[in-house]
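Obj.: predict assembly geometry.
Materials: sequence records (below).
Method: joint structure prediction, all chains together.
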Amino acid sequence: MGKIAPRRPLLLRSRWPPTAIAVTVSSCLTCVLLLAGPVHALDPNKRLTQYMHTSWRIQDGSLPSGMYEIAQTSDGFLWFLSLPGDLYRFDGVRFTRWSAPAGVPFNTESNIFADHSGGLWLAGDKLVRLKDGVVSSQFELQGRMFQAISEDPDGSLWVVRRAEDAPLCHVTDSAFKCFGKADGIPISPIESILADREGGFWLGGQAALVHWHRGRSEMYRSEGIQSLARGPDGSLWLGISGGHGLEQFKDDAAKPFVTPTFDGSSLDFGTLMFDRDGNLWVGTVGKGLFRINGNVVDHYDHTNGLSGDSVWALFEDREGIVWAGTTSGIDSFRDPAVATFTPTEGLGKDLAAGILASRDGSVWIANFGSLDRIQNGTVSSIRRSNGLPGEQVAAMLEDHGGNMWVGVDDALYLFKDGRFRRIPEPDHQPLGMVVGLAEDTDGNIWAACKGKPRKLVRIRDFQVREVIPASQFPPGGLAADPHGGIWISTRNGDLVLFRNGVVETKFPLNPKPGGYPFAEQMIAEVDGSLLASSENGLVGWRQGKVQRMTTKNGLPCDSLITFIQDKEKRWWLYTPCGVVEFSDSELQRWWTNPEAVVQTRVYDQFDGAQPNLGSFDLAALSSDGRVWFASGIVVQVIDPSRLSQKAQPAMTYIESVTVDRKEFPATANFKVAPHPRDLQIAYTSPTFLIPQRVKFRYRLDGYDRDWHDAGARRQAFYTDLPPGKYTFRVVASNSDGVWNDSPAKLDFSVAPAYYQTNWFCALCAVFFLALLWAAYRWRVRQLHHHFEMALDARVAERTRIARDLHDTLLQSFHGVLLRFQTAFQLLPERPVEAKEKLGTAIEQAAEAITEGRDAVQGLRDSTLQANNLALAISTLGEELATESTNERHTTFRVAVEGESRNLHPILRDEVYKIAAEALRNAFRHAQARQVEVEIRYDKEQFRLRVRDDGKGIDPEVLSRLGSEGHYGLPGMRERAALMGAKLTVWSEVDAGTEVELRLPADSAYESTRTPSWFSRKFAKAKA
Amino acid sequence: MKADASRIRIFAVDDHALVREGIAGLVGIQPDMIMVGEASTGREAIQQFRALHPDVTLMDLQMPEMNGIDALIAIRNEFPDARVIVLTTYAGDVQILRALKAGAQAYLLKNTLHKELLDTIRAVHAGKKALSPEASYEIAEHATDDALTPAEINVLRLIAAGNANKQIADQLSITEETVKSRVKSILSKLGANDRTHAAMIGLKRGIIEL
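Observations (raw structure tokens):
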């Protein structure tokens, strides 16, 4: 091992490089055993360069480092271990770096291995098995550096460790047992391990190859075995370190593998692997990749596009793709449906203008400067140097006698045994370039020749018999009709049946003139029908009727380059959209119903198709059943027999949920915090054949009604998901376009924010109702209060009226009544006295009437409706002014200051009554010249002043009189006190009297009691 | 004119001058009666009574400062022989009873003064008691009614003055709830429909005064 270590990059330190070899070989072999069968595999007949090669290189930014370990878990994902020791998971599109869960020992010394029950083993300081991202078991095997791992059919593992005495350990579910010298293993360390077919192992060490039968062993001398592989024939191959190359172990001895083109002994060793088709893949250090099949050795290195020339790991995945891990990246090789021949594979030039398959199994390519021949997968060329009589090889034909006709430049040749024999031209005038060749049922060879004019030439017995200048139907391609005559695709866009010297049928190729008018391919059938390729689909002519197969019939393109039928009668169309395949029954269905939609299968650029337009016959069917097309540039071939395998159904996995840029693993019943703005669900389907073609559909149960067609997109986006439970489902179609029936599911829920919860809503409702109830109660109380206030005011009013009547009118009448009684008793004895008494009685009665009227006035006051206090007061004042029949004229004036505001109705009455009382005093008792009322609406208070310039009252008298109830003063005070107002009376003898009433604003004005918006609404609603 | 000693000496107490003048006029022309004094308040009445020692006192019940009942009680306490005729505008059973309990010999409604005053004075002077038919009827009508408690009377008085429950509670230093329960009891005892009605009944029956 010491010899080998320096080959590895320095960063690996003491790592033993070839650990991957045995792993990949053994696991691949078990792959083959366990899988139902290879899905796709690599066609050994194809050259390595003909595989579809994809490269992920460090320098392109695809990868952070080179990879030396590859495994595929049973869920389909590929795992790569990078040179610095990071683990990457790959789904065909994206490399995802795997971070070890806490407690999982994983470091740069580690090794990975996927078992067949879905586990991924990480071998480092410990041996750990991961299943679905969690540790399912782990083992403490003393001695670090586990390297080679092999799996028994029963699922137990064989692990090679760095331990002198017992380097090989058998690991079962729960225990392990290690074997060493005592068990018949004579070597340590072991570099590689390979299970034999009898339960034993081949073990490769530094100095020997050991065949261990679990107890006894045979030892063969060999230098530094780094890798072991067994071929399909059972042969054992040894990868030897130190530039000693590849050895084959046969007859108990190892011999270097050497072919005329390949010297295995000189290779500096990387890794070995047999693929399912029996190809041996060899990864070298510094020399790229070799593929060996029998004696055929293909080489592939950076000049072909390999990411690096040092290949550490080789792996064949379940889909038959071969992966290579190099120091600079990852490479994959897959077998495309449509293989391509280019100058790399030996074509003379990339100008493949026409193609012909001959009966001997060869395929001939008309190239510029060469006639190329493909036979048994190898390409040979006939050039000027070995007999080609010109530059441009044109139309070719093999007649019924096996003669091969080849147009070269402007002449026609018979090609036989490597020699070209020119067909003699009449008058020694060159025929012109032969663009079409056909043999009719009579054995005539027809050639369509360029030149002016174009002409049709009939040849029989290798002699030109007839030259038909055909300006009416300038010939291009030719095709024989099974019932005699030939079909001609003319340069002016017609299809012409030329039979017995006359044009029997003629119809235009395209529905409209213009465009490319030329049918590259015509096939006339026994039933008298003709099929032709055109820019407007496949043209069918039968019994005089023309029909077309286009995109309306399910073709991917309207335009058709050429087409051909294979041995199984399947039809192959070469179109700009790729190769289209359908069965003959589909064609027959179309014949009977030109509207029929044809069931097709399309092979596009991902399958290797590189369609383009050549010049001559562009399609050929070789005797091995393969279908060939010349694209004008390259040659493409399809093997229908290898296309029947279907891709596996696409497995879909939901990977992560990203909520507002924070990523979470997609665990079942995932809970999303309230109010997710952006929710993104990432899903994938691991497939490596044609990941670009994998399509997805998803649906979020609880949100989406229908499935979303996501195309190739691997994320679903949702914005502002309301709280609730959701199930996300996603399905994928595989590279054949077949949808998997069982979707991947993820249940998750979006938690409600507190204000989205039911209890909160309920609480809100309760709160609102309570508020409503409170408002209602408040309003009721308010109304009740108002009512009570009105009621109380009414009681007070009644009391006042009663008191007024009692105090004034009634007492006066009682007095009057007593005087009348007195007068009554005096009459008739004392008439003079009686008269006197009656006189005072009458006077008193008149006074009583005045009192009564005042009381009535008081009643009327309370019905004061208009809110105009000033108006009411001035009305009363004027009334009183006219009533006072004094000789003096009393002037009366009302002044209002400030903006008039509404007073509370009850207060307004009271204010009015106080004013009225004061006015009555002023007019009746004061003998005033002037009476003035001043009403002032202030912000802080309401003020009323009644002033006169009359005789006034002595303050002392005033207080006494006031208390005795004269001038209505007690009543005024009482009223003022009741409404919370302040009443001040100021008076002086001969100076007049002033009564002032002051009410604070908050109780005086109605506006300060203006109901709130709510109560107004409420009152309105109630109304 | 007869000697003063033979005439009935009459003392009139009323805050209304017109009423006093009327009484004085009527009494003044009677040969057997003589007005010896007048007073306009209860307090004045007590002072004058001490000085005058009248035979018959005419006492108005509703007067400022000290009402008639209080003055009557004070006078009767000092002079148990004092003969007092109560004058009032309204015939309320409670007031009548109160006056009679206080020692009044007669109860006269003012609207019957001109007819019955002189006869009543003479009857009382002769040592008789006199009750007008109207007053007798009032007393009989409510004889079996539950009397209001003093607390309820206080509340009723404030109701009549136009106070709301809250104000009443404030003024009496009791809770509003207590006021409410008393109002309820008042309404029930008086057979009143509402507060206004209760106040009216209270005034009419003399439970409260104006």
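Conclusions so far: The mean pLDDT of chain A is 82.
To do: check interface contacts against the pulldown list.
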